[in-house]
């Protein structure tokens, strides 16, 4: 007899037992699994956002921006992004996050993916200096730091390159980056631009 | 109705960091943790800002707050049904932009999902993915 464990069962088992022995899921593959039913427009119980107030072992205690408090269980199977894919040791108090996983009956979110400090901003480039993009977002100034070896540009969907020279002052771009908590600064992962 | 293009995600509602200034969107209901999306033709005022026609997109129906669409990630075939909560993306600012997964490509921004919705069908770190938008 063959027994098949689906993603929910694996995460549930890991959260209940504290197991950390199952392998990491590639995000694109993991996310290809069928979505759990949530009514369009409704809050998603398997999703959490907010800022980390405390860390106990591999558990994150997060204060949601809407006032809801979340307990999030991270396992070795949880993919964590903080500018790049990172391990749990890089997650810090005060970080902002989005997390997706499976909500347990006791309210714990068994995390499949955690994106730490991630921002996705449509901005207007106001000036460019050495390894820094100065940007405006909804009237607020954002300082974007170019991280050599990490930051990449995507022009019209072409493969990502490190060359930022096609970015122009006055243009609108989309930026994926990691916020530096309690500042108006981000580290830039990817700039998407139409040229 | 079927439109192929690019999907992305945006934050709204109560939020941390730079997202804190974004508000609840054109419909007044937008929330990053809910299954919602922004649509470029949510009203005439919205369309005047987004102008997908300037990128050569026709047939993007006017649909108001609460209307439901299904967005399918062309990289993995997974999909999510969401309701309109905001105006966007500003398609005209990114005319010609394209993202591909192998031979599956999307050209021009056609839909923005909330982080909750986007993360059902793609990793937030991808930022952009080719997508197909249909009726549920």
Q: Which structural class do you get from the secondary structure elements of chain B?
A: mainly beta
Oligomer: heterodimer
Secondary structure: helix percent of chain B: 10-25%
Beta-strand residue percentage of chain A:
over 45%
Strand order of the largest sheet of chain B: 1-7-2-4-3-8
Secondary-structure map:
The complex is a heterodimer of chains A (195) and B (136).
Chain A: H1 7-17, H2 27-30, E1 47-56, E2 59-63, E3 69-73, E4 79-82, E5 84-86, E6 96-103, E7 109-116, E8 118-129, E9 132-137, E10 140-146, E11 152-155, E12 172-179, E13 185-193
Parallel strand pairs in A: 3-7, 4-7, 10-13, 11-13
Antiparallel strand pairs in A: 1-2, 1-6, 2-3, 4-5, 6-7, 8-9, 8-12, 9-10, 12-13
Chain B: E1 2-9, E2 36-39, H1 44-50, E3 68-73, E4 79-87, E5 98-101, E6 104-107, E7 109-113, H2 115-121, E8 129-134
Parallel strand pairs in B: 1-7, 2-4
Antiparallel strand pairs in B: 1-8, 2-7, 3-4, 3-8, 5-6
Describe this structure in words.
The complex is a heterodimer of chains A (195) and B (136). Chain A folds into two domains: 7-32 and 43-116, OB fold (Dihydrolipoamide Acetyltransferase, E2P); 118-193, OB fold (Dihydrolipoamide Acetyltransferase, E2P), CATH 2.40.50.140. Chain A is built from two helices and 13 strands, in the order H-H-E-E-E-E-E-E-E-E-E-E-E-E-E. Chain A has helices at residues 7-17, 27-30, and strands at residues 47-56, 59-63, 69-73, 79-82, 84-86, 96-103, 109-116, 118-129, 132-137, 140-146, 152-155, 172-179, 185-193. In chain A, the strands form two sheets. A five-stranded mixed β-barrel of chain A has the order 1-2-3-7-6. Chain A has a five-stranded mixed barrel with strand order 8-9-10-13-12. In chain A, a hairpin with a 2-residue loop joins strand 1 (47-56) and strand 2. Chain A is elongated. Chain A starts with 6 loop residues before the first helix and ends with a strand. The relative contact order of chain A is 0.15. Chain B has a six-stranded mixed β-barrel with strand order 1-7-2-4-3-8. In chain B, strand 5 (98-101) and strand 6 form a beta hairpin. Chain B is globular, with a radius of gyration of 13 Å. At the A-B interface, helix 2, strand 1, strand 6, strand 8 and strand 12 of A face strand 4, strand 5 and helix 2 of B.
